[in-house]
Amino acid sequence: MAKFYFYYSTMNAGKSTTLLQSSYNYKERGMNPLVLTPQLDDRFGEGKVASRIGLHAEAVTFTQGDNLLDRITAAHQTDPLHCVLVDEAQFLTRQQVRQLSDVVDNLGIPVLAYGLRTDFQGNLFEGSESLLAWADSLTEIKTICHCGRKATMVLRLGEDGKPVRDGAQVKIGGNETYMSVCRRHFKEGIATRQTNELPFKD
Q1: Domain for residue 186, yes or no?
Q2: Model confidence pLDDT, tens digit, residues 127-138
């Protein structure tokens, strides 16, 4: 029975790496996965999913105005799909999350979505909020703060390297723009390890 999966984390936790590994596993078994990525995230070139450790794959881009059920149905009719993998799933709309649930329920195709849970202000993205509500399975991909605690939040950094608290929710960027931190250091606005700070021990 097909299921709807949401793998969530902060920045730099390995979401894209995990997605690419899943895609490779399907292909290795002679199956046909469809990788989707938002058109607005073109850091590695349009229609590409790439990880920090060098893995990459071609993907089909989508916009927030696309009907994903229609697009996936058309692709499935041309070449039967065994899985749909969605990168940067926080950029999905509520309607698109519902459409992906229809892919699972009506077409019997498993959907694996990978994305951030919250933005730089600590608020849920629209897509993530809907995925948390509609997915069958929720899995956290973990990474750590500079202090050693589990990172659960994301700081946005300005050109001076200091945290920015205001601005548009969506701003595409990598390590130069965002830093994953624990809740304490998110509240304190501390993005890097302090010279007198000892590593956290649980």
Answers
A1: no
A2: 999 999 999 999
